[in-house]
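Deliverable D4.2, example record:
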Amino acid sequence: MTALSILHLLPTPPMEMTEGKVYFHGKDLGLLSETEWQGLRGPQIGMVFQEPTSSLNPVIPVGDQITEVLRTHTHLSDGEINSKIVSLLGEVGLPDPPRIMRQYPHQLSGGMCQRVMIAMAVACGPALLIADEPTTALDVTVQTQILDLLFRMTEEHRLSVLFITHNLKIVRGHADRVAILYLGLVVEEGAPDAIFDHPQHPYTEGLLAALPEVSQKGKDLFNITGTVPTPYEALHGCAFANRCPRVEERCRLENPKLDELTKGHKARCFYPSKR
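Output generated by the structure prediction step:
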């Protein structure tokens, strides 16, 4: 939802943004016209979606799909576009780019489709790349390859990345800043070392405790008790109160603010960790 909201891609109706603002390069994205959005998506903000096979058009060769992006947002000639696509597909590690260009998504593996999506996302040289759980549908070996590729490409193309994931181990190795969300709210925010070494919110502590470690072999994995409230439940206090081991009466009545506990480290909790 966050990624789709940023790019103004929420299906309306039934969805709409009712509050909050998103700024990019000083512009309030909520005020842009559809014409202005066409100049923003692709040239300035690229996106790698969660399901590569469903994000690509199944009845159009992948080369034609990248061609459409470049033809819409650049002034390259047909010959230049063809050379650009061959270069991009080679850059993302796909063998024999001219052959890949002629193939349809169903003829490629999930990992190959995701490489095509990354090539398409960076084709126009955006300043920001949004990666929405880009390895969820891939097996573990391919996940590692795609992540290595993604972060290498962002460094080479000098992109900022908004990376959305459930895999906290990826976060520690690659992020400059981390935001932990629960029920759509940021409950903790800070540098990776602060989040991982000194978590302040009980939800963050629970997530880190649940990470499997080799040293825990043969032991039960930690789990956060309770269940996530549904969107239809009326919450009067902290959203995490019904699952929190440190809950107090105040937590059930008041909604805590995201307060800065130490420089650059924020948490939405009345009773943050004392560590």
